[in-house]
Write a structure and sequence with these properties.
The protein has about 425 residues and is mostly helical. The protein has a single domain, classed as Orthogonal Bundle (Ammonium transporter fold), CATH 1.10.3430.10. It has 15 helices and no strands. Helix 4 runs parallel beside helix 7 and helix 8 packs antiparallel against helix 9.
Length: about 425
């Protein structure tokens, strides 16, 4: 019996770690997606943001975030404050067996959770692209990953008050994606739109990205990483039931992404008379976000439908936000926020979960993250400013913030 416990512990720990690596690979996906959807003069800066935010998220979550999220009183509103991630499971605790015995390494749990934090912060980087100061963004990343996200994470996955009211979110349509979008929305509202994006009479001027192949590659990387995002949230696979669940999660995740692409592509063709690649890419991500709240309960066909609705919603939302003059260069607020809400609300259609609890969860997560982020953005604006000058924005933030260009051989000054 003891040997079996050792083996299952090792299998579940290994599975957790590999899924964490897949989610970590999503950082590359966000980097490529955002680098493709911004103009070439802003590419190096957004890549710098992506690798720096990942490092900041890992460090802040190591020192304070994980403790806040998972070391607090059950059913509470205010989390405990503390440092570091605690001690590893003892061999005796594992081999004791029983329902309370740990079945995977604490360090593997930390590693899996930390890459989720980085995902939430990555959502913000694309929405504020092309006009935000690099160091203001990085300071905000410290606060979001160290405090803001862990608090709402404690409310849900940490056993806090949202968990106690019955809010259900399997892999984080609300906990991760809506949270990131709420922080992004607060930043965009304080920051304002890019110069030239909107005309004086309400015109919306398209600002195309520089590299559609790179954006497409980023989308495929995110699609691949999402199997770890959702699959790892089953938390184990060393028994038949868990292994079957993981397989269903993988099937549903893939089906939802495919449904999102098809729906967004058809809808954009009907509406714009063109097959818009950017809408198809965002449709894939919308499908993935939509199914993340419950990738286990639906059938594969049901998952495709959930993703397809997300694909339509993201097109509508991107156009609507432009009408409101909310400038989001990559569509992050629509993909992760609007569709994140849909994903949370879709859970009761397939699982025994209350719509009321889901709505409470949406409101709790959104308003906490939005208001807390808004306060931080306003403080940063007052102290150091968060927007580059008009001249720096025109020249590109690569030179202003990073002192180099991503594509120097294509500039007129290159030899």
């Amino acid at each position: 019996m003891e040997d079996i416990l050792h083996i299952t512990y090792a299998i579940d720990t290994f599975y957790f770690l590999i899924c964490g690596v897949l989610v970590m690979w999503m950082a590359a996906g966000f980097s490529m997606l955002e680098a493709g959807l911004v103009r070439s003069k802003n590419t190096a800066e957004i890549l710098t943001k992506n690798i720096a935010l990942f490092a900041i998220a890992c460090t802040m979550y190591l020192f304070v975030g994980y403790f806040i999220m998972y070391s607090s009183p059950e059913g509470g509103i205010f989390p405990n404050l503390g440092f570091l991630i605690g001690t590893e499971n003892a061999v005796e605790a594992v081999t004791a067996g029983g329902d309370d015995a740990p079945y995977y390494s604490m360090r593997s749990d930390f590693f899996f959770q930390v890459v989720f934090v980085a995902t939430a912060m990555s959502i913000v980087s694309g929405a504020v692209a092309e006009r935000m100061k690099l160091w203001a963004f990085l300071i905000f990343a410290v606060v979001l990953t160290g405090v803001i996200y862990p608090v709402s994470g404690f409310w849900t996955w940490g056993g806090g008050w949202l968990a106690s009211v019955g809010y259900s979110d399997y892999a984080g349509s609300g906990i991760v994606h809506l949270a990131g979008a709420a922080a992004a929305l607060a930043g965009v509202l304080v920051l304002g739109p890019r110069k030239g994006k909107y005309g004086p009479k309400g015109e919306v001027h398209a600002i195309p990205g520089a590299n559609m192949p790179l954006a497409t590659l980023g989308t495929f990387i995110l699609w691949m990483g999402w199997f770890g995002f959702n699959g790892g949230s089953e938390l184990k696979m060393s028994d038949i039931s868990s292994a079957n669940n993981v397989a269903q999660v993988f099937v549903n995740t893939n089906a939802a992404a495919a449904g999102g692409v098809i729906a967004a592509l058809i809808f954009s063709k009907i509406w714009f008379k063109k097959a818009d690649l950017t809408m198809a890419l965002n449709g894939a991500l919308a499908g993935l976000v939509a199914i993340t709240a419950d990738p286990l309960s639906p059938t594969g066909q049901g998952a495709a439908l959930i993703g397809a609705i997300g694909g339509v919603l993201v097109v509508l939302s991107i156009v609507f936000l432009d009408k409101l003059r909310i400038d989001d260069p990559v569509g992050a607020i629509s993909v992760h926020g609007v569709v994140g809400i849909w994903g949370v609300l879709a859970v009761p259609f397939n699982a025994d979960v209350s719509f009321v609890a889901q709505i409470i969860g949406i409101l709790g997560i959104f308003f906490w993250v939005f208001i807390a982020s808004l306060v931080v953005w306003l403080i940063l604006k007052a102290i150091m400013g968060i927007r580059v000058s008009e001249e720096e924005e025109y020249a590109g933030v690569d030179i202003a913030e990073c002192g180099l260009e991503a594509y120097p051989e294509f500039t007129k000054n290159s030899k």
